[in-house]
Amino acid sequence: MKIAMTSRLFFPLKGGVPVIVRLLANAWQRQGHEVRLLTRTAADGSDAPEADCPTIRMPTTADLLSAARWCDVVFQMEVSLKMIWPFMLFRRPCIISHQTHFADTPQVSLSRNMQRWIAACSHPVACSEVIRKSWGGHGIVIGNPYDEAVFHLPGEEEARPNQVLFVGRLVRAKGLDVLLRALAILSAQGRAVHLRVVGDEVQDGASLLPEWRQEAASLGLAEKVTFLGGRNSEEIAEEMRRARILVVPSTWQEPFGIVALEGLASGCRVVASAGGGLKDAGGPFASYFENGNAEDLARVLGPLLEAPLPDCEDAALCGHLERHRAEAVAEKFVSHFHAALGHPVACAALMA
């Protein structure tokens, strides 16, 4: 099958979308499909990861029309009016993957409403049930993949000296402040706690790390929190293999949360916000607390500080991770492509 893949976001940008795009493109290539990736993200000369397929950055109208003539289907990572029209002109089946909420407010622009209409007229796929509902309940849910080549158990299970880990951008929506307040509560109860923070954020050209260090110190946690700054995927995976608990304390309704899958695959206990799509990512294998509620997080986290690590050979957990391997997710999308093309497909392939 010839798959044109379009995404506004790609490496060297950070975030989940570039990771998902690369994982799916490479998986389809390995499965014998032809893939062309078109992205509106320019290269910056860095050694950022690339996909294994031909990649056209900042595509021209001629590039888009050429891809539309060539492909059997187009897979669009988040609806883009600027990149979808040539494929609609050539009447190619359009599979749109929703990765974030539809902003359903009175101030929604005409272009945003057009996006919603196009998405409803295509063959939409949402990364979680909460995202599917925000786009009007159209389409199906296919959860996002994680990189099992990077995030996995150590060759031999070693002692995990680090108690609690946070991985994410240092913005308020990711909830690090909630986690710090929860740790202050546990510390006041006499619990021995230590947190390692992976991530950074630059605002107006300056890192926000000093601000977060000051916030930790104001809560009496200066000696109990280690800020590591930004790390690459391999370094993050190593941190996860040395941590006992990964906390994903997002205050907003996270659309999915690949980091929860990465933590489970690395053998961590995972504690995550209950709202949004994190329950799709963590399933019944994570523990949950009310978004933004530090007291509830402390209540959930406290008993886990000394709890045994999860059984990584548990069949149900292994099955959950298997369903989110890149190859498995790519196969589900291919079944959806066949359905969009009118090919006979077993419904079970999409519902599995």
Automatic annotation (TrEMBL):
Keywords: Transferase. CDD domains: GT4_PimA-like. Transmembrane segments: none annotated. This is Glycosyltransferase involved in cell wall biosynthesis. InterPro entries: Glyco_trans_1, Glycosyltransferase_grp1. It comes from Prosthecobacter vanneervenii. GO terms for molecular function: glycosyltransferase activity. Residues 159-308 form the Glycosyl transferase family domain. The keyword Magnesium does not apply. It holds the Pfam family Glycos_transf_1.
